[in-house]
Amino acid sequence: MDNLERNNLRKLMKEKRLELGTAEITGAGQAIAGKLEELVPLQRAHSIMGFCPIKNEVDLSYFFNLKSMQEKDILLPRINREGRIEAVPYKGKQSLVPGSYGILEPEGEAVHKIDAVLVPGLVFDGRGYRLGYGKGYYDQFLSALAPNVFICGVCYEFQVVDNVFPHQSDVPMHWVVTEKSELVINWDFF
Questions:
Q1: What DSSP designation does 169 have?
Q2: How confident is the model at residue 3 (pLDDT cuts 50, 70, 90)?
Q3: DSSP 15
Q4: Amino acid 63: pLDDT
Q5: By the 8 A CB rule, do 87 and 116 touch?
Q6: By the number of CB atoms within 10 A of the CB, which of 32, 71, 74, 123 ranks highest?
Q7: Looking at residue 72, what DSSP letter applies?
Q8: How far is residue 104's CA from residue 30's CA, in Å, rounded to a whole number?
C-alpha cells in the first residue's frame, strides 16, 4: 500500500466516523469501557494513559470514571515544545485546555511512570498495527516506552481492516478493543 492508498484509507475512516450519531458514540464508549475493565493488564495497572477524543473518536470518559473510582492514575497526552507526546495527569474536564491541533490537553507536570497506554487510531489491523493521522507522534512515543508497558488500541469495529501495510517505524499494539470485539496480538501480558 503506497502513501496515496494510506491517505485514502485515512480519509474514508474519518468520513465514516463523522457519520456516527451521539447514541452510537455513547453506546460504543460504554461497551468499550466494559471490555477494557475486564483486561488483566489494565486491572493491574496503576497509571493508564488514555486520550481526549476528537472528531467522533471513541469516548473513554466512562472508562476514566471507572478507573478513577478505583484510584488509578489517569494520564492524557500533551504535545510538548519539542513536538513529542508526554503523559500528564488528568484532573477532570475543567483542567483541560486546547493544545496542538485544538485537541484538549491537561496542564501540569509530565510523568514518566506509565503502566498502560490506550491508543487512538483511524485504522487498525489484525497484527496490531495502526494508521493514525500521519504525523508519527504516537509511533515516536510508543517506541520509547519500556517493554513492559501494555499498549492497547481503541477504535470502532469498522476501523479494523485486514492490513494497514505498516512502515518500519510503526509500533504494533498488544491488543485492540472495539465495541464488538477484541484482537489479541500479544499474550505476554496475561
A1: T
A2: confident
A3: H
A4: 97
A5: no
A6: 32
A7: P
A8: 21
Grid coordinates given for 41: 493488564
For residue 187, what is its C-alpha cell?
499474550
Chain length of the chain: 190
Is-contact 75 68, C-beta < 8 A? no
**Do residues 188 and 173 make contact, with C-beta atoms less than 8 angstroms apart?**
no
Write the CA distances from 121 to 28, 72, 153, 154, integer angstroms: 15, 24, 7, 7
C-alpha to C-alpha distance for 91 and 42, rounded to whole angstroms: 19
CATH value of 3-189 in 3.40.720.10, 3.40.50.10420, 3.40.50.2000, 3.20.20.80: 3.40.50.10420
- pLDDT at position 147: 95
List the grid coordinates of 99. Answer: 493544545
Q: Write down the pTM of the prediction.
A: 0.95
Max distance between CA atoms of the chain, in angstroms, equals 45
